[in-house]
Design a protein that fits this description.
The complex is a heterotetramer, with 2 copies of chain A (305 residues) and 2 copies of chain B (261 residues). Chain A has 305 residues and is of the alpha/beta class. Chain A has helices spanning 7-14, 32-40, 54-62, 83-91, 104-115, 131-134, 184-190, 204-208, 244-253, 257-269, 274-281, 283-289; strands spanning 20-23, 46-49, 66-71, 98-101, 121-123, 139-142, 150-154, 161-169, 175-176, 193-201, 214-216, 223-226. In chain A, strands 1, 2, 3, 4, 8, 9, 10, 11 and 12 form a 9-stranded mixed β-sheet that branches. Chain B has helices spanning 13-23, 37-47, 76-79, 88-96, 138-144, 175-180, 218-223, 243-253; strands spanning 30-32, 54-57, 61-62, 84-85, 103-106, 110-111, 117-118, 121-123, 128-131, 147-151, 190-192, 196-200, 207-212, 230-237. Chain B is globular. The two termini of chain B are 15 Å apart. Classes of the chains: A alpha/beta (305), B alpha/beta (261).
């Protein structure tokens, strides 16, 4: 049956104060539209998990939705710092932010453990690093076999809610992604509740024509939201480019609480929905971000009747 | 010898087993399908009591829409037109081990009164009389699927008092222990044979005869198993296959009769 | 640089007596052509690893190439027994066969551990099963975290050689597969040496048009062999159907050593190469196995220049 | 302050760093690329000393053919036309942890004489003066890539006697211990800065000045680091960027001069 919902409904019904929320997507397919709706609905005391908090979490943390951050790389990719997050960590301004820190592979393995219902996951990292000394969840373990190899293990990460953006899905939530895959599949399977946001909802037949392309099956999905340009200023491979200019602008906007608040007022609180956001940027902006086509070609699955 | 034990004029023992099993899938969302009878059972249920049933195959297919009856669980007809094809690691880790599978079918060479299953050897493991296929996915399916249905013919050699090898765990006989296991599976919930249908007693975890198929006497059931079976109070008779169930089986699902004659 | 080789060269140069060899592929893409060449070159004392030994290992073990079998399900799918293997195990006829047995998920996790350079892999299976009692490699372990969950762990499987069949690859060995994926990717990354056999070698541009379709990258591959119909009687999705009739015939052929030897004589030893095998079956046979088309449709990656 | 320390008429310090680093990739099969300078370095090497170089990005791309200079390691231009795009689990587990990565670049906020790297905090971890990005993939890259190249500007605050935090392990100072670690990485093999290039001493694992860039005095180098550097016997001068290297950098790789002016 159909799981289609509006972003307003999905965030209202599936994201609760105090939840651990993972909006995943490694540079690609970061669902800013969902982050903005969470800000708009003034959710509070969230624990935000993401490998790379990126500008979206700087906006959400600047807006005061979070009390804790779980991450592996804290920055504005290719630009510099996340100033709102740094103010919270360095100066407790306006309030402290609890952090729990891993390496990229550690975060990925936490999602894999969560997705696999495993109580721990082994990883050959953290050797002679200070990271385990500041994160007691990263513990050493010895192989029970003759080699006795030392590894570290990380615990499963099971978000209350995972929000992942895909290029397309059917009304059942069967979602297909191409281009960078990040750890969205693992985050979705690891989560208690899953919101899939897409550039377009397509007929189930489109999905079934290429089942190997399906990254997240509907069985793991609670809501499907159609939100074109929902990743901006992140990107959707084949649909629109990363808005690098905005990532650069954000460095300036976020440096001062006043300018950050003004931006949230104008671009989030001041708008009803992501549709308004898209309209406010204007058609010319979106046209400029649209890439020329680069088609995949087709493969033949064969009909066996 | 019990091959056609329950055969009445009009339908075969297999057709009775298929119909009775399919009814057990009413309203189910997804089911781990085995080859052979379970495959026909699931396809019948999809056309009758469980229209929304998603077929899952351990070969890595979710939401299959087979255009023909597959001979194996890896038939190409299962991938074409399915919802998702995934690596077997992901199927077993993210779907099965993570608890997304509602129902699974298991077969058995031997089963005991608590639903423990042997598909590994007859005789000693090191010097087997008969070397059987082994676990395949059965061991983890028995542990992680939320409901386990067994479909098999019964007889003195298959319904045994003592397994030669326990491949897949059933009930322990101690429900408190079962509850504390922390896995979803924890024993079959029903067994359908050529003679009748069985549930498992909440209090004892023991297989309990629920219905006998039309024309099958309780004595006949007793003679066809290696222990004295518990019998449900008010033992009933399995409703025979309906005309529509038989039509679907014979015309659509197994026209060749490979599995059902 | 090009890794293209003939099957004869690849098996001669990369498969050595005493090796652990994994010809993987779950029902789909089982490379019979490689198995036949290994028989033809009379390799000896191999340890054969496969989740489902299938008819190919019944043929190889019947031909005497192996001393040990590592597996998780031993049968002729949808048909019944592997008689040559059973004779070795039940009657040591003509000689004993050592076996090492897991469940499907256990085998998959062994490949994942091998591919990931992990000394062990945790799995929530084998509880209250007799399997660990006959396989000391399957050992219990307790989660180091508060939950103290009990799991079992399995050791990495690192074949000396993995042989995987794909629909297509470029000359560098970048291989693409669609339809059932089994555990080929994991087996290939886990192996010391990798032979990729394909239905067709395609231009690198074909691979680069759809990089998400690439299952095994050339960096992990040692030789690329073009062998059309190389999976028969197994199948290649979209290229040809499974020859179920042969799987049924094999049950009869393998029941008696004499008929099995006669078959090997006629279809393996008596032929120079898989090309001869294809010719011997005849064009009509292959035409009958060819499915009607069922195309995947295309996706757009977008050109970002 | 050392931003243009090595600037000679004709090219910038960054251009010198890029050219010197690119030459270190001669003949390399594949390289884990970071954003910024390493990205330009690898693209330059591909066009000069390592035509077969495969670019690998931790974002999950193998064999990238970027049509433009990516601002981030997740730029869409990296996926289009690449050899393979994979999940980050597979990239870190099957490629990096399994030892398939030949060379990787690491940057650092602080580095010590043994090549240990800090990208986490300046000051105390709990009460940092400056909160840096953290590990990202650096910790496991340092452990598993078969060769680690560091490219960074040097100064009293970045070349330190004592790290505030060890994010990624370098050499231990005890080569016997390093050899016994059982990982491939085990410390950087070279460091290229705006002042010169460094190797690491086989016997001591200590960073050793190999060449100074044209116009840079040894004193200048000494003033720009937090410890007394070991100097290779017969200290040489880094060959300046060639006309062709400069042309490629300026016309093809960074026409805007974002990274190199």
């Amino acid at each position: 049956m159909s799981k289609v919902a509006t972003m307003q409904e999905a965030v209202r019904d599936l994201v609760r104060d105090g939840d651990t929320v993972a909006i995943e997507g490694f540079t690609h397919l970061i669902c800013f539209a969902a982050g903005h709706e969470i800000i708009r609905q003034r959710k509070r005391d969230l624990t935000l998990a993401r490998m790379t908090p990126d500008v979206i979490y700087d906006q959400m943390i600047g807006a005061g939705v979070a009390r804790k951050l779980i991450f592996s790389w804290l920055g504005n990719p290719g630009v510099g710092s996340l100033h709102a997050v740094r103010r919270r960590i360095e100066d407790a301004d306006p309030e402290p932010l609890e952090i729990e820190e891993y390496s990229h592979f550690g975060m990925v393995c936490r999602y894999v453990a969560g997705a696999s219902n495993l109580p721990f996951f082994p990883i050959r990292s953290y050797y002679e690093s200070d990271i385990p000394s500041v994160n007691p969840n990263i513990v050493p373990m010895t192989s029970p076999y003759a080699d006795g190899t030392e590894v570290y293990v990380v615990p499963p990460l099971r978000p209350d809610v995972a929000i992942v953006h895909a290029q397309r899905a059917d009304v059942n939530g069967d979602a297909q992604i191409w281009g960078l895959l990040g750890c969205q599949k693992e985050a979705a399977f690891a989560a208690e509740r899953v919101i899939v946001v897409v550039e377009e909802i397509v007929d189930e037949a489109v999905i079934r024509r290429d089942p190997n392309r399906t990254v997240i099956p509907g069985v793991a999905v609670d809501a499907v939201v159609a939100e074109p340009f929902g990743c901006h200023p992140s990107f959707a491979q084949g649909y629109y480019d990363r808005d690098n200019a905005f990532y650069l602008d954000w460095d300036r906007i976020a440096r001062e609480p006043a300018s950050l608040d003004a931006w949230l007022e104008e671009w989030v609180y001041g708008l009803e929905s992501h549709r308004d956001y898209v309209e406010k940027w204007g058609a010319a902006h979106w046209d400029a971000l649209r890439p020329a086509p680069a088609l995949s070609g087709e493969v033949d699955y064969g009909r066996y009747a | 010898m019990s091959a056609d034990a329950a055969t009445e004029p009009g339908y075969s023992a297999s057709e009775m087993m298929i119909a009775a099993s399919a009814r057990g899938l009413a309203g189910v969302r997804n089911c781990f399908v085995g080859v052979g009878l379970p495959n026909i059972v699931c396809n019948l249920a999809q056309r009758t009591v469980a229209p929304g049933l998603q077929l899952v195959y351990e070969s890595g297919v979710f939401g299959a829409r087979p255009e023909r009856l597959p001979l194996s669980i890896g038939d190409p007809t299962l991938a074409t037109g399915s919802t998702a094809v995934t690596s077997m690691f992901e199927l077993f880790a993210y779907y099965l081990q993570a608890g997304l599978i509602d129902v699974a079918f298991l077969g058995a060479a031997q089963i005991d009164r608590f639903g423990n299953i042997n598909t590994t050897v007859i005789g000693e493991y090191a010097t087997p009389k008969v070397r059987l296929p082994g676990s395949g996915g059965a061991c983890e399916i028995a542990i992680h699927a939320r409901r386990i249905l067994v479909i098999m013919r019964q007889g003195q050699r298959s319904f045994v008092d003592r397994l030669d090898f326990r491949t897949s765990p059933g009930h322990s006989g101690d429900p408190a222990h079962d509850a504390a296991r922390g896995w979803w599976g924890s024993g079959p919930t029903s067994v359908v044979t050529d003679l009748g249908t069985y549930g498992f007693d909440e209090a004892t975890g023991e297989m309990t005869l629920a219905t006998t198929h039309p024309g099958v006497t309780l004595e006949r059931v007793r003679e066809s198993m290696g222990w004295e079976p518990a019998v449900a109070p008010g033992l009933g008779e399995t409703p025979p296959p309906t005309t529509e169930e038989l039509r679907l089986i014979r015309e659509e699902l197994d026209p060749g009769g490979a599995y059902t004659r």
